[in-house]
Amino acid sequence: MKKDKIPLIELKNIYKKFGDIVAINNVNLKLYKGEKLAIIGPSGSGKSTLLRTINFLEQIDKGQIFFEGKEVGYIYKKGKRILDKPKKICALRAEIGMVFQHFHLFPHMTVLENVMEGPKTVRKKTKEEAKAIALDMLAKMGLLDKKNVYPACLSGGQKQRVAIARALAMKPKLMLFDEPTSALDPELVGEVFEAIKKLAQEGMTMIIVTHQMGFAREMADRVIFMENGSFLVEAKSKEFFSSKASNSRIKTFLQKIL
Ligand code: ADP
Ligand code: MG
């Protein structure tokens, strides 16, 4: 990772409130192409909101978001910030894949149709092209044999791998994972981790929110600990998990969840 390059994504002084709750409190982040970042922290600390602001599912109150060096998502009129045109937001969103805790597959579509949908409707691929891409991604996720079944017939681990294949079919530049294994039975966690690890090894840039410390330690270059909407600690993965570097707040948190 060369620090002189332009970050793939940069957040500058991001701030987000819900009523009186400050969900994101003046956060700064630079993520470079190929980097893998893990975000951990207690429930309610702002992890999901942070991912959602990056993907423009949430509008920030203050701050700026840059994608490949250009400010995105908002335009300024008479000094007032407003969300950019839906078309532009959609174009940006297409560059960023997001995987949620609860899969969010289309229940009335087969696995193959689920994965073809993005390339077809957003990327404007022909049906044949979309199918080729979808089959490719399903093969990568080890799900070719499930292509004609409906999501209801899949295990949680399989559903999540379809969700990952669907996100990948858009050929995103960045992948966001919001607790991708939290809704899974313990015996299904491994297959989803393996799928994400494979992407990491292929060089995908990613941010993963997880409570699975073993996974964060194994795949992340960098770890951020969030609390009350702020980054309490930001460190290289190795340093973060070495007991010397952990501050007492993080030690308590890790002891509780391990
Ligand atoms: P985490 O993902 O770390 O558990 P969240 O980002 O979901 O945290 O939430 C951060 C804070 O913002 C919490 O206090 C939560 O209750 C609040 N919050 C999140 N989304 C909303 C919303 N849509 N409306 C009101 N409050 C919200
Ligand atoms: Mg969350």
Q: What does this entry look like structurally?
A:
The protein has 258 residues and is an alpha/beta fold. The protein has a single domain (9-256), classed as Rossmann fold, CATH 3.40.50.300. The protein contains 9 helices and 12 strands. The protein has helices at residues 47-54, 86-93, 111-122, 127-140, 156-168, 186-201, 213-219, 237-241, 248-257; strands at residues 9-18, 21-31, 36-40, 62-67, 70-71, 74-77, 80-83, 96-99, 174-178, 205-209, 222-227, 230-236. The chain is globular. The two termini are 31 Å apart. The mean pLDDT is 92. The structure holds adenosine-5'-diphosphate and magnesium ion. Residues 18, 21, 23, 41, 43-49 line the site of adenosine-5'-diphosphate (ADP).
| Rg (CA only) | 18 Å
What's the overall average pLDDT, rounded?
92
In CATH terms, the superfamily is P-loop containing nucleotide triphosphate hydrolases
The fraction of residues assigned to DSSP E strands is: 25-35%
Number of domains: 1
- What's the helix count? 9
- Strand order, largest beta sheet: 8-9-10-3-11-12
Q: Multimeric state of these chains?
A: single chain
Unique bound compounds: adenosine-5'-diphosphate, magnesium ion
Secondary structure tally: strands: 12
Distance between the termini: 31 Å
Family: Belongs to the ABC transporter superfamily.
GO molecular function: ABC-type amino acid transporter activity; ATP binding; ATP hydrolysis activity
Keywords: ATP-binding, Nucleotide-binding, Transport
Domain ABC transporter: 9-253
